[in-house]
TrEMBL record:
Bias (Basic and acidic residues): 642-655
Name this protein carries in UniProt: GAF domain-containing protein
InterPro entries reported for this sequence: CdaR-like_regulators (IPR051448), CdaR_GGDEF (IPR041522), GAF (IPR003018), GAF-like_dom_sf (IPR029016), PucR_C-HTH_dom (IPR025736), PucR_C-HTH_sf (IPR042070)
Domain GAF: residue ranges: 78-229
Taxon lineage: Bacteria, Bacillati, Actinomycetota, Actinomycetes, Micrococcales
Region feature Disordered, mapped onto this chain: 620-655
Species in which this protein is naturally found: Arsenicicoccus piscis
Length: 680
């Protein structure tokens, strides 16, 4: 600065001027300028120059700081980094104790603390401020800067308990706040504050405002970048989702094609479960509607605790597609609205949507296979059932029936037994033949006659055949099983059916519904409770071998048995009555033991033999040639002649008032029939 004066009125002080200029050039502080021995006017002029130099220097420093801040903000990648950079720089620019930012919440219409630097109070760091409350709320409402050297005692602002408590806990006294604006868009409020009274000059307020403009722009830019990055990430995720979905659809379609190809090649459910495991890994199990495992593939095989049939089927009934079930996935195998089973898959990894669709495709193809199998089984079952009906009712040529049975694995020349199966609950009769056929399989022939399920199977012991069938159909539903046999020949099934049916009905009448038994095991009890008693069959069942032996050899073993029991099972007394030697009676009884079995003298068997003897006396005279039932070792009713039983006819008809003829026996109640037989 150049200063001129009138040389005539104002003396020059070259030495003082030199000292002042030198101190200014050396950037000496104002106090040294004030100490120079120079006129007051020169000293004041030098101090003014000093002040302006300091102001320019501070502005330069501020501009440098703003430039550094701009670079710092430009390198922030996220909003959080940008916010922390802003409060850190603001605190450094104004050399304050604390700097912080309140961001504007558009949804709630207030501001909230988002970033701080130098703060120690948790309440202050979580503060929310309504527009108009406190200094910050006033800045937010008016979009203009405000500052105070002593906020707690400044009545220009609306004080609230929440704000004052938070400010007091932080220890803040002096506050300077300026709005964050970008193109009239309000972003928030930037603050610089001290914990002691401090008057902020206008240069500091302007500096904070300039920095706030940079900060707002950087914050909006970061938000835009963040939003763009989020949108790009969402777009990439959507693209990846579409890609995975497309790949999953293609993979599921390829699996479906593979399943279909397997079926077209004649593959079954085992091939489908194998292909499913090859596609997904892990393991797969097919459980049919009866709770049985139809197919299993994969390693390690699941345990019963993992695949519990009842729970799996219940989950399948409640589902329309593959759904999680514990650690597994269950897909219903259904045709129309009928559940055929459940496909259970599990393994080391969870299933994605594509895997889920693959499981569902496998379930659909499995349902088709099971439906085809059912149609084929129904056709075969109808053929086998028709064959059973023909065998029992004797329809068609004997040769055709024999060959038909042989084609199904039943050789009628070998011993076989016949069973009648009746449901305990009549409501369970629907589908019983199908269930029994599924349980019996190729072990026998299954058919249906009226309401009875009939099973013909190779066996030599009716009781063991009943036990075997009971084990096979145990999981089907509660049933009563009556068996008869063994028999041979194409005519035997009819006779065995009548006996087996009587046995099943007798079991029901005896309160043993749901159990199983053979005709021979019931003995006379079966005759008493049967709905159509067959006295001849009972007599033949007990005495047949003896009667045939007598007919073939001209002996009278039956008469010996009558005398033996009439004598109280005393061979000696029997010999006296028969007028033969006791040894002869002993030999005859030994022959009887050979024919009836060594246990014929056991009390329960002896009772049945005595009843058969008495019932035989009630029967009308039989033809001279015994009739054969076709059963192995079958008993026949021999001709009753005076030579066979010389003393029988008078006893039977003339001397016993309780004797009944055949028509009377059939018409009388079953219990009366038994009592009449015992009294004869």
């Amino acid at each position: 600065m150049r200063v001129t004066s009138d040389a005539t009125t104002q003396p020059r002080h070259p030495r003082a001027e030199h000292d002042l200029l030198r101190l200014l050039a050396e950037d000496r502080p104002a106090r040294e300028l004030s100490a120079v021995d120079a006129p007051t006017e020169l000293v004041d002029l030098a101090l003014t120059v000093r002040t302006r130099i300091d102001a320019l220097r501070r502005r330069e420093q501020a501009l440098v700081a703003l430039a550094d801040s701009a670079r710092d903000l430009a390198t922030s990648d996220t909003q959080a980094q940008t916010l922390h950079a802003i409060v850190r720089r603001a605190r450094a620019l104004l050399r304050t104790d604390v700097a912080y930012i309140l961001l504007y919440d558009r949804e709630r219409g207030d501001t909230y603390m988002e970033a701080t630097d130098g703060s120690v109070s948790a309440a202050f760091q979580s503060l929310r401020v309504r527009l108009g409350d406190g200094l910050g709320g006033l800045v937010a409402k008016t979009r203009k800067p405000y500052w105070t050297a002593d906020y707690p005692h400044d009545d220009r602002f609306t004080h609230t308990r929440a704000i004052d408590d938070a400010v007091g806990e932080e220890g803040i006294v002096a506050i300077c706040g300026t709005p964050l604006l970008v193109d009239e868009e309000f972003v928030g409020v930037l603050f610089a504050s001290n914990r002691s009274p401090r008057p902020f000059d206008r240069d500091e307020v302007v500096l904070l405002g300039s920095f706030a403009a940079l900060a707002a722009a950087a914050l909006v830019k970061t938000r835009s970048v963040t939003d763009s990055a989020a949108a790009l990430a969402a777009l990439s995720e959507a693209h990846e989702t579409v890609r995975r979905h497309t790949e999953g659809v293609e993979r599921a379609a390829a699996a479906h094609d593979r399943f279909t190809e397997l079926v077209l090649r004649g593959g079954g459910v085992d091939d489908i479960t194998d292909a499913l495991v090859q596609s997904l890994g892990g393991w797969a199990v097919l459980v049919d509607v009866g709770g049985q495992t139809r197919s299993a593939a994969g390693d390690p095989a699941p345990t019963e605790s993992v695949v519990e049939p009842d729970a799996v089927l219940e989950a399948a009934r409640a589902a329309t597609r593959a759904t999680p079930h514990g650690r597994t996935w269950v897909a219903p195998v259904a045709a129309a609205s009928e559940l055929l089973g459940a496909l259970v898959v599990g393994g080391p990894r969870p299933l994605d949507d594509a895997d889920r669709r693959t499981v569902e495709r496998a379930a659909v193809v499995t349902a088709l296979v099971l439906t085809f199998e059912r149609y084929a089984a129904d056709g075969r079952r109808r053929l086998r059932g028709g064959l059973v009906t023909d065998l029992v009712q004797g329809r068609g040529r004997a040769t055709g029936r024999r060959q038909g049975a042989l084609a199904e694995g039943i050789d009628l020349r070998e011993p076989f037994c016949l069973a009648v199966i009746r449901p305990v609950d009549p409501a369970d009769g629907q589908g019983l033949a199908r269930s029994v056929d599924g349980a019996v399989g190729d072990r026998g022939l299954v058919g249906r006659i009226d309401d009875d399920v009939v099973v013909l199977l190779p066996a030599e012991d009716a009781a063991k055949a009943a036990e075997r069938l009971a084990r096979l159909v145990r999981g089907v539903r509660p049933v009563t099983i009556g068996t008869a046999g063994p028999g041979r020949g194409v005519e035997a099934p009819g006779t065995l059916y009548a006996s087996a049916r009587r046995t099943a009905i007798a079991l029901e009448a005896l309160g043993r519904a749901g159990e199983h038994g053979a005709a021979e095991g019931l003995g006379f009890a079966g005759l008493v409770v049967a709905d159509q008693p067959d006295v001849g069959a009972f007599v033949d069942g007990m005495l047949g071998p003896v009667l045939r032996y007598d007919a073939e050899h001209g002996t009278d073993l039956v008469g010996t048995l009558d005398a033996y029991f009439a004598a109280g099972a005393s061979p000696r007394e029997a010999s006296r009555r028969l007028h033969v030697h006791p040894n002869t009676v002993g030999q005859r009884l030994a022959r009887v033991a050979t024919l009836l079995g060594a246990g014929w003298t056991r009390p329960e068997v002896a009772l049945e033999v005595q009843l058969a003897l008495r019932m035989r006396r009630l029967l009308p005279a039989a033809p001279s040639t015994p009739r054969s039932t076709g059963a192995t070792g079958a008993r026949t009713t021999p001709a009753s002649t005076p030579h066979d039983h010389p003393r029988q006819a008078p006893h039977n008809r003339c001397h016993d008032p309780l004797a009944l003829d055949l028509t009377e026996c059939q018409a009388a109640p079953r219990l009366a029939l038994a009592l009449s037989a015992l009294k004869c």
